[in-house]
Amino acid sequence: MSGNKSALSVVVAGGGTAGHIEPALAVADAVRAAQPDTRITALGTARGLETTLVPARGYTLELIPPVPLPRKPTMDLVKLPTRILASVRKTREVLDSVDADVIVGFGGYVALPAYLAARGGVLRRRRKIPIVIHEANASAGIANKIGARLATRVLAAVPGSGVKNRGDQDAEIVGIPVRASIANFDRAGLRSQAREYFGLPQDGPVLLVFGGSQGAKSLNDAVSGAAQELAKAGISVLHAHGPKNSLEVTQYSETAPYVAVPYLSRMDLAYAAADATICRSGAMTVAEVSAVGLPAVYVPLPHGNGEQELNAKPVVTAGGAIIVSDNELTPTFVAGTVVPMLSDSARLDKMSSGAANVGHRTAATEIARIVLDIAAKENAVQENARGNR
User: Fold this and answer.
1) Whether CATH 3.40.50.2000 fits 9-180+362-387
2) How far is the C-alpha of 339 from the C-alpha of 345, rounded, in Å?
3) 373 — pLDDT class (breaks 50, 70, 90)
4) DSSP one-letter code for 334
5) DSSP label at 38?
6) Domain 185-358 falls in which CATH fold?
7) Could you tell me whether strands 276-279 and 206-210 are parallel, antiparallel, or unpaired per DSSP bridges?
8) What is the pTM for the complete model shown?
9) What are φ and ψ of residue 14, in 5° steps?
């Protein structure tokens, strides 16, 4: 246990996918900015993206056994109690070692063990640690639905996510926390620098295409298949096709180039270079694209529980985006719908305003304030307990 209890200890639990990790890190950054001496620990698993993303942001990562929650009756369901017990024990060891004052959970494989360990769970001993839960998706996962019943505060990105607190009240709506570089983003101010960085022309519309960290074949095929029509309309393309994919595009226009790259390490500059984007509609993607006011064509993943379409609907309602199903995204759709959209500057301006009105640039700061307030109260309780011994 750390001897430095003058500093608050915050544990963030959001491993597995970028959709869980990025909001957790955005809140961690905001906590550090508000109170720099706070000790921040991230929980994760050995096979998640957090093994790369968390250390790169300068935070301590503690690994625990993952607890995937089976959606169908399988042998994994039979093994679930044993797996939960082992993971909760390991998580409790981490919480004790860092003397945690609060846990902030964002769902995913590490969240359920963290919630149970914090509240005693299957190990009904030791003090209970306050929990703050944030649900980023429009349709909550199982871990957050369970954890919300144990939490001190329950927060969500949008109404109707399905997470309710112990009093059966809906979550407080705060939006999705985005990193500071997005929260303080000046898309127009960075436009010239961004276009130079990617070798794009300073004038004329630019379409940004990305399908997540691994790319998306349907997006790749549809947009590259319409390369000629895009070039004829004077629309340049910045296309991240994924590190495991390749993209062969004939250069139809020198003045409106098609720039294809495996991966975009500078998403901030990609957003600044673009006038509109075609992308998936994961919660974090929608949050960032909306926060920077970028018009979007959202293409929800064709599998899962439909949450990606739900994520995008508020932006569509606000006039900042359109939705097209994966099987309807074709070269013909790009030529017939996306090209006219990018050729209409007045429409793009209106969509940009609509998207920006949905974005929540201050969510990370607001969540950090809540977390620090709860952590300070818990810290004071523990200090009083020590003083009375």
Assistant:
1) yes
2) 12
3) very high
4) I
5) -
6) Rossmann fold (3.40.50)
7) parallel
8) 0.83
9) -165, 50
